[in-house]
């Protein structure tokens, strides 16, 4: 890729490279269309149904985005902890501290 393509930023770049963005916007568009259409059928007022569409789009995007990003952050934190533990294990392998740790873990599992 060229440097210009990497530096460009836009809605397409955001949706492709941000976790949860694609699904959030897709569900938001669906929820907004259903909410706006239902409100139009109920009131027959196009202007207010458009407002209902925007509100239901925003609510759906936020209600999907926030928990998804929270779960994504939790997964990233756990993977970082596992990677750090693996790096520490590789560094300590074969040292006296590793043998002490292994013997302490064996004694803890026996009781």
Automatic annotation (TrEMBL):
Residue spans crossing the bilayer: 24-42, 48-66
InterPro entries associated with the record: Cox20
Recorded family membership: Belongs to the COX20 family.
UniProt keyword annotations, A-Z: Membrane, Mitochondrion, Mitochondrion inner membrane, Transmembrane, Transmembrane helix
Pfam family, one: Cox20
Domain of life from the UniProt record: Eukaryota
Protein name per UniProt: Cytochrome c oxidase assembly protein COX20, mitochondrial
Any one GO cellular component localisation term in the record: mitochondrial inner membrane
Organism annotation: Branchiostoma lanceolatum (Common lancelet)
Annotated GO biological process: mitochondrial respiratory chain complex IV assembly
Signal peptide (residue range): none
Chain's gene name: COX20
Location of the protein in the cell: Mitochondrion inner membrane
Taxonomy of the source species: Eukaryota, Metazoa, Chordata, Cephalochordata, Leptocardii
């Amino acid at each position: 890729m060229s440097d210009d393509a990497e530096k460009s930023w836009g809605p397409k770049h955001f949706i492709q490279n941000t976790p949860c963005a694609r699904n959030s916007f897709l569900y938001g568009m669906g929820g907004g269309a259903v909410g706006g259409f239902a409100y139009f059928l109920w009131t027959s007022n196009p202007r207010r149904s458009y407002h209902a569409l925007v509100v239901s789009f925003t609510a759906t995007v936020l209600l999907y985005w926030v928990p998804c990003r929270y779960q994504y952050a939790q997964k990233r934190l756990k993977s970082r902890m596992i990677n750090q533990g693996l790096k520490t294990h590789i560094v300590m392998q074969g040292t006296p501290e590793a043998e002490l740790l292994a013997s302490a873990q064996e004694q803890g599992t026996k009781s």
